[in-house]
Amino acid sequence: MSGAVLVAIAASIGNLLQGWDNATIAGAVLYIKREFKLQNEPTIEGLIVAMSLIGATIITTFSGAVSDWVGRRPMLILSSILYFLGGLIMLCAPNVYMLLLARLIDGFGIGLAVTLVPVYISETAPPEIRGLLNTLPQFSGSGGMFLSYCMVFGMSLMPKPDWRVMLGVLSIPSLLYFALTIFYLPESPRWLVSKGRMVEAKQVLQRLRGREDVAGEMALLVEGLGVGGDTSIEEYIIGPANEPTDEHAAPSDKEQITLYGPEEGLSWVARPVKGSSALGSALALASRHGSMVNQNVPLMDPVVTLFGSVHEKLPETGSTLFPNFGSMFSVAENQPKTEHWDEESIQREGEENYASDNGEGDYDDNNLQSPLLSRQTTCMEGGKDVVVPKSANGSVLSMRRNSSLLQGSSSAVNSTGIGGGWQLAYKWSEKETLDGKKEGGFKRIYLHQEGVQGSRRGSLLSIPGVDAPEEGGEFIHAAALVSQSALYSKELLDQGQRPVGPAMVHPSEAAARGPVWRDLLEPGVKHALLVGVGIQILQQFAGINGVLYYTPQILEQAGVDVLLANIGIRPDSASILISALTTLLMLPAIGVAMRLMDLSGRRFLLLTTIPVLVASLIILVISNVVAMGTVLHAVLSTVSVIVYFCCFVMGFGPIPNILCAEIFPTRVRGICIAICALTFWFGDIIVTYTLPVMLNSIGLAGVFGIYSIVCVAAFIFVFLKVPETKGMPLEVITEFFAVGAKQVQAAKE
Where's the Major facilitator superfamily (MFS) profile domain (predicted)? Predict the structure, then answer.
């Protein structure tokens, strides 16, 4: 996974530049005031500091939609250019007005980086380490602040510190960022798939994953093109095809799903658990597998319960769903690639051309070709459609002629791992309408093993009401999210076109319409927006700005300024050094968070650290209300601030951005991220400009009291509304939101 790690590190330099800028202006403003005589012009002074915030807010309003249109990488390139121009103009600024312009341009670069770097990392990182990599922006930002404070501190010791040089140095690291975005960073594979550029997406994935076989993840990315859809939850018992399933499984051959492996004659049978159709609610998994505690909590969001039920049963080792099954896409990977499934090479003038990748329309009984991401052919046998998949890389699966793939009584399913213990499969399903006509459709299935693979008896005992016989044999209990494939169009079927497997609609055709605003009205998207916007608002009002504002005063009371003065450091330099030390304390805590983000999870870290934030703020309130000795007051305040900073950067600092980059569908991810980022920037502006007013009206104790109440509200919101997303593919996360949201909607009706 080194490719994805290095790409994430390179992308997070944009956040390092943001932290660098924030720290530099905090130190440089001391000298800017003197040169331009702004001691009696607090409005101009405030504008110099806040202009970058204004610029970030302005550009965020359209950055999401533009990134969905032109791509993530061009926007990161633009961010590096804006950083460079802003630093260059600040280096040469002759007056306040040019300085304000430079700060505005710099803010444009900050807004693009803060909004899009988490999205870019989420779309390129594998699910298993996505949380770790998406904590890098927080680490880079704090690291940039520390390095900048060190630079400004060193320059402040000079006889005549030059604020222009302090601010202009930003142009040097921005050149490095520009070079990396141009020559090293690839485009997001998910964005490429959303535009039908399949060949490029495959090449990027191969580079990021360090392997040739990425067809399974390609299939997942294609399925991520869908927004909404009628998703149901089903449960299956999966076992070898040559052994009978349990009597509690549905006996009908019509309901049997056969999964084929890469070896001749190797197949598994999946049958729905009896009564699974009655378990179609979003709470099916939770009600059957142990999340009853959450369900009994009033106002608990079904989405939280649903995600929790999956993580309760997630195998610790990340085992594959089908033992010895292998990747359905790895067969004959080294065969010559004769087909480029890309928007530039669409040949769908007739169904025969569309069905064949190599221009060969012949069907060989003894060589069925493996799934999935390709144009497919449909054969007729016994009056029923039997799907004969053919892969984009021309790989071949050798199957027996008499296998159930070639018999109309069974549905062919091809499966592959997609990360986080999930597998992707497909089946052709038919149902009879009220007027007696048969209506079919290609279904996409996300399968997840419930429990750990073992003996038939050991596996099935975990299912309530199933008595497992004594004989041996391996069976697996799996949960499934079943929905229509993103590449199957019922509208085209209604127009009389025959289905051509899941690739009835080519990805470039599915992506042509691009993001539309009505997609934001899908229940799953609206539900995810509620979570994203809510947690961004609560983060801003949790008190980080107030504590940062108060830190120099606290450390002054602790006697740090006296100590520094005794060793010959001037007051200006002392304040900068104090800020550098404060930032340095954050880095180890962020390192711990990076380690825990994919082990303990985002939700766990939030629920663990927010109570500590509340306790720290309450201690700060008490220390400012209750009369106590100077030493005791300084000790309590200093410890509380340090603990607050460390816990904030472990939880409430990075996690809102991580969650917002994970919970939206690919087609509208940029727009939704922009909405959440706008919430962040507006909240930042409100908190920044109301803090002095609140300090004058209710005092420091009152401000910290309000912040502690907000943190309590944040804990309740996280507990009831924020699910655990660790280790899950982005496309599966969005499906869960869609299922849970529709169940909430149905309950209200």
Answer: 7-726
